[in-house]
Amino acid sequence: MNAQLLLIAKAPVPGRVKTRLCPPCTPEQPADLAAAALAATVATLDAAPAARRAFVLSGRSAVPAGWHHVEQRGDGFAARLANAFADTALPGTASVLVGMDTPQLTPDLVAAAAEGLDGADAVLGHAEDGGWWGLGLRDPDAARVLRDVPMSTAETGARTEQALRALGLTVARLPVLRDVDTWADAEAAAERAPGSRFAAALAGIR
Predict the structure, then answer these.
(1) In a structure prediction context, what are the per-residue pLDDT tens digits for the chain, which is 206 residues long?
(2) CB 163 within 8 A of CB 156
(3) Is the pTM of this model over 0.70?
(4) Which of 3, 118, 136, 141 is the Cys-Cys partner for 114 at CB 3.0 to 4.6 Å?
(5) CA atoms in the 13 A half-sphere facing the CB of 62
(6) How far apart are CA 6 and CA 94, in angstroms?
């Protein structure tokens, strides 16, 4: 399925992004890592087939060339995720949303997420910390269930899947990946994506 690809992102501003990396990092270093991760994710999505690519942004940052742009809106991350799907919806087009902090993401994995929607109503990529790194929906309106899912907990992924199934949707699982919240996450993610821009940025601050 040729889906729309959504990137939900936060501008890489020191003191406002990846603050859980401090310590051991200075406020500027997580911003550098976030910028590298953001650039890498944009490149990954650019290399995957898409009906459209949408940059769903919090803060001020350059919009990738050729991308649609919307501002994040809503009170809390759950609302912003639901609104990301609603504000970018294209008639008759599925949407696949990813974040900017999963360095192991590849174009093939993004394409597989979209293709998974040929046989399922939703695809969900769980994260090792209990959250999720990617969500694809054949009908973007189904993202409304996210408003009632607690975010940033060890049960977010499971609760998201439960909410989708409670709506009557079939859900296919994507590979489990590790996203970056802590320094240990950063090191583990870099080891799993050794040739990535993120790994190079991390090596530069070690």
Answers:
(1) 789 999 999 999 988 888 888 888 888 898 988 999 999 999 999 999 999 999 999 999 999 999 999 999 999 999 999 999 999 999 999 999 999 989 899 999 999 999 999 999 999 999 999 999 999 999 999 999 999 999 999 999 999 999 999 999 999 999 999 988 888 888 888 888 888 888 888 888 86
(2) no
(3) yes
(4) 3
(5) 7
(6) 11
**Contact criterion met (CB below 8 Å) for 10 and 59:** yes
What's the CA gap between 86 and 25, in Å, rounded? 36
For the chain, what's the residue count? Answer: 206
Q: Are 183 and 19 in contact (CB under 8 A)?
A: no
